[in-house]
Structure formats: C-alpha cells, structure tokens
Amino acid sequence: MRHNQPFSKTEDFWAIVIGGFLLLAALAIYFSIIPEDLKERIQRVEMDLKNTENLPFNTVARHEAYADLEKLKLSSEPVGKFLKKLTGKPNSWTTNPLEAFHKSARQADLSVEAEAANNALRSALEAENAAVNANYGNENLNKNAATAIAEWQDAQKKYNKKADKMKPGGFSFPHLAGLFVLLALLFGIGAKVQGTSFQSFAKGFVFVFLLALVSLVLAGQKDLHDIGIEYAVWAIVLGMLISNTVGTPGWVSGALKTEFFIKTGLIVMGAEILFNKILAIGVPGMFVAWVVTPIVLVTTFWFGQNILKIASKSLNITISADMSVCGVSAAVAVAAASKATREELTVAIGLSMVFTAIMMVVMPIFVKFTGMPEVLGGAWIGGTVDSSGAVVAAGAALGDKAMYVAATIKMIQNVLIGFVAFGVAVYFATKVERQAGGPKVGAGEIWRRFPKFILGFVGASILFTIIYTSMDENMASIVIDEGILGGFTKNLRTWLFCLAFASIGLSTNFRELRHHFTGGKPLLLYVCGQTLNILLTLGMAYLMFYKVFPEITAGI
Fold first, then answer.
1. What would the DSSP string read from start to end of 424-464?
2. pTM over 0.85
C-alpha cells in the first residue's frame, strides 16, 4: 500500500465494501421471505417438545417434532432455493466426472430400508405405549422404550441416507453464469478503483473462474475428498502446473487478485463467527483456543528466530500464525501485517494444505484406536487442524458430539485472527523495523500497517451475533443457520477462497520459492510448531473438559 493512497482506493476498503454488500443484501432478502405463518409453525413444534421434555426418555413424538423443526428452512423457500443454487458448488461424484455438472435422480429400491424403518417405528410405539400404561413408573419398560426408539432412529437414518443419494444434483449452469456475472461486476468495479481496468480484470477473471470451477469439480470426487484432498489443494496445484509449464497468460494477470478475493471471503466468513455459539462450549473451549494458541504462536516464532535462524521474520511469523491460529485465514492477515511477500505467503499456505490433509485423516484414526473420549477428540481436532472444513470432516468421523465441539473450538480460535494481526502489526512496526535500522514509528504507521479488512470481519461477526441473539432460538436457526449462512454465504465463501487459491497458483513460480526452503527450515518450523500445538492442545483439552469443568462436558 502506498503512503499517499486514500483508504477508499485500497484493497481492504473494497473487500469490506463487497463483503458488506453481500451480507447486507443477504439479510434483506432472507428476512423478506420469512413466511407469515413461520412463527406459528415454530410455536406448534415447540409446544410438542415442551409437552415431552420431562419424560424419562425421548418419545417418538419428540423425535418427530425435532424432524419437523429441521424441515423449516428458509433455503427451502423459492428465493432461498435460487440463492442456494446461485452459489452452489459442482455435484459430488465417484467415477463419472460429468455428474459434477449433471446428476439426474437415481432409481433404487428403498423398500427394504422403508420396511425396516416402519417395523422399527411400530416396535418403538409398542414399547412406548407399554411405558405410558405403566405411567413411566417401570424402569425396565422405560429402558425398553428408549432402546426401541433408538433402533427406530437408526433405521430411519439408514433410509434417509440412501434416499438422499437418490436425489438429483443441485448444480446449474444458468446459476453458475449468474454467479460469474455477479462476482465479475463486484470485483471488476473494485479492481478499477484500485487501478486495474475493468476490461483487463474481466478478461482474466474468465480464466481464474474456470480454474476455480475445475478445482471444485475435482474436489467433488468422493474418494479423494474423503482422504482430505480439498479444493484448495487442487486450485493451488493446477495453478502452479500452468504457471511453471506453459506459463500463465499475460492477459490473466489483471484478475490475479489473491488477497482481494480472500479478504472478501474472510469478511463473509465473519458472519459465521457467532459469539453466543462460542459461549455454548464455555470456559474450557476458550482455554483450549485462547491460551494454547498464543503460547504456540510466540514459542514457534522464537524457535524459528533463535534456533533455526530463519532469515525472514515475516516468513517465520506467517508460518507460525498459519499453523497455530487457523490456517490460511490467519496467514493472510498476518502476512499483511508483517509485509510478507506473496512467495512467503504461498510457502505458509502450501505447508498448511499438506499437513491439514494428513491430520484430518490420521487424527480421527488415532482417537478411535486409543479409545479417547469423543468430546476430548473433538476438542483436540478443533484446536490443531488448520482448515475449518477439515475440522468439521475430521470431527464428524468421530461422531456428532466431536463434530460440534471441534467446529465450535475452531470458531473460537478464528476470533483471534484480528487480535493476532493487530499484535503482529504493532510488533513489526515498533520492533522489527526499528532493529533493522528503520525510523521510529508511531500510531499512524501501526494503523497504516494494520490489515483493515479485519474490521469488516469483526463487524460482520458482531452484527450477526446481535441479530441472532435478538431472535427466538429456533427462528434464528431457521433464518440465519439454515438460511443466510447455510443457503448462501458458506458456499459463496468457498468460491471466493477457491478464486484466491487459483490466483496463488497462477502467480507462483517454483524458482521464486526455492530459496525459502533452503535447508528445509520452513518445513522443520511447521513440524516442530505443530508437534508442540498437538501436545499442548491435548493436555489443555483433557484438563479443562475432564478435570476442571466436567459438568460442562457432561452436558454436551
């Protein structure tokens, strides 16, 4: 950023403008499509739940009420469906890549699963009636009813799972074209204000967008996705293959806006960081995320400077933040705060991608092998695996509780992005550059260096937290979780991040990266730092969830 450049013409400003526009537009649209009778429908379900809340087991009616509640989604409304398709990713596929673009409804015999579910339901109702006739006073009948209802739920899940596989894919070329036009217009305008002509950006954006599309198609291959090879890896690798073989066409350079895309994506992601959900895990989760992370960050940076003697402090701190905080998101913020080069950011992101893929597969296996409690395994994964998507996938491999704890702790950890970026900006402005012979700096220089898009990230988090907490819990879940976030912003964020990763690959030359890996120091830094992170997180998670606050763990 140039010293004399107005803030209104900077990348950070336009990331905030575009991210803010998308979020505010989503709020306006989704609140305008809330059905008039939604509140009454919610109240009916809540009454059904209230009537069964003090019984000794979850009745059939209670499970059916929960199922009815899950069906109330704004993403199922006509406009909600349109927006979900607008930001939709290519379909998942196994052997035929064409299914990524068109997957018709499949025909399958569901009679076996349907009969099993119906028989299990009849058995559950019989067992429940026996308990009701005894006025819930017979413990054995209560246990029999609870067991029969659980077996019915398992049979119903098997039926639902198979039925879901038969549904057609949601990908749509017309909607994809609409997304392309929307993003090309928004980022083209932002690029023009920053000095890149709209025509130059739009021409190159076609190439970048197509590469992102191909990356998402490849990421949809089920077998590769299951072992942790996600869209970020494909986008970077494919981009690098192009840039280091035939070379990235010159006319594409106008659209290689790596940080512009990812900063906007981070602001959109801010809407997902809801403080009320962070508080649901309570103090133990905060200790895991907010105590271990700074310790690992500072220790790893010290280790890189004093033991490994890494020459570039900005490379050192970017890798340290990437590994200890939350992967790519933290790396981008800290790279901006420390003035790291594009090549240094690419090194950090590359290391993160490789180890994230390994850890999301290995850690659940280790947790199961050792018989580690599900909540502990989820907390461990949430505090160590870098990518939010990988955290959810790894947690889900252990169970619903582990997935919930892992995702929430990662969310808590994501809050640190702004604080870490500010701290790094202050440290590099007042210490690192002073030691390098630079002039004494004051608050103005710190503010200039601070990655201001973080303000948009924090602002989105605060705004959506206020809106969420001002609504009834179930209404908030339907409008925010199953509407704005689940039906629009999460997929949109994926597209923005994928565009950023494609830009990284297309603008990266192996020769420029080679000197950063001299002696293997960045790799050794990451391995040593992540080892410390793994050990400290496991110890803190066990201490907080099972020794200091066992009552919170029992309630999860």
1. HHHHIIIIIHHHTTPPP--HHHHHHHS-THHHHHHHHHHHH
2. no
End-to-end alpha carbon distance in the chain? 47
Query: Residues 199, 490, 75, CA angle at the centre, nearest 5°?
Result: 110
Q: What token pair was written down for 252?
A: 């594409």
pLDDT digits (tens, 9 = 90+) for 350-374: 888 888 878 888 899 999 999 999 9
Residue type, 114: A
Cα 276 to Cα 532: distance, rounded to the nearest angstrom: 30
Contact 305, 313 (CB under 8 A): yes
The burial of 112, by beta-carbon neighbours within 10 Å (0-12 exposed, 13-18 middle, 19 or more buried), is given as: exposed
What is the token pair recorded at 291? 């105590």
Show Cβ contacts of residue 130 under 8 Å, excluding neighbours closer than 6 positions.
141, 144, 145
Q: How many CB atoms within 10 Å of residue 164? A: 8
Neighbours of 37 (CB within 10 A): 9
Q: Give phi and psi for 268, each to the nearest 5.
A: -60, -40
**Is 54 a residue whose pLDDT tops 80?**
yes
| CA of residue 205 relative to chain centroid, distance | 24
Tokens for 341?
């080069």
* Tokens found for residue 171: 């990908």
50's tokens? 């209230």
DSSP annotation of 75: G
pLDDT in tens, 184-195: 999 999 999 999
- Residue 167: Cβ within 10 Å count: 11
* Residue in the block written with tokens 């192009």: 242
Residue bearing tokens 């806006």: 257
Q: How many CB atoms lie within 10 A of CB 68?
A: 15
